[in-house]
What we know:
Elements: H1 2-19, H2 27-39, H3 48-75, H4 80-95, H5 101-117, H6 122-161
Amino acid sequence: MDYILLSIGLLCMIVGILGSFLPVLPGPPISWLGLLFLFLTDAVPMNYWTLGITLFIAIIVAVLDYVIPAKGTKRFGGSSYGVWGTNIGLVLGLIAPIPLGFIIGPFIGAFVGELIYNSKDKKRALKAATGSFIGFLASTFMKFFVCVIYLGLFIYLVWENYPNF
C-alpha cells in the first residue's frame, strides 16, 4: 500500500509542477496533496505541523495566483479584459506549436484584450499588457518555486524514510 501512496504522491508532485504553468490546474495545492499522500504511508511519521504549514503556504499562493496578475494589470492601467486576455493567451500559447508560446501567449492575449476594451489607445494597451505579463510571470515563478520546494521536501522524506527505495 505504501508504494501505491508513494506513486500517487509523486504523480501529484509532477502534476503540481505542471500546474504551475497551466492556468487550469492549481499547482501548489496539488503538490501539497502529494505531501499528504506521503505522510499517509506507514514509513513516514505523521507531522501535523509540516502538513499545516505547507497547506497554509499552498492556500496563500493559490489566492495570490489570482491577485498578482490582476494587480499587475491594474497597476499599469489595464482592465479586466487584459486579465482575461492573459489567461486566454496562456491557454492558446500552450496549444500553439510555437516556441515559448506559454510566454508569448499571455502578453499577446493581454494586449488584444486591452485593444478590445479600448481600441483607440494602443500605447495604454501595450502598457497594460506589459503589467499583466509581469504579474503573470511573477505569479508563475512563485507557484513553480513553491512546487519545487514541495518536491524537494517529498524527495528528502522518501530518501530519509525509504533507504532501499
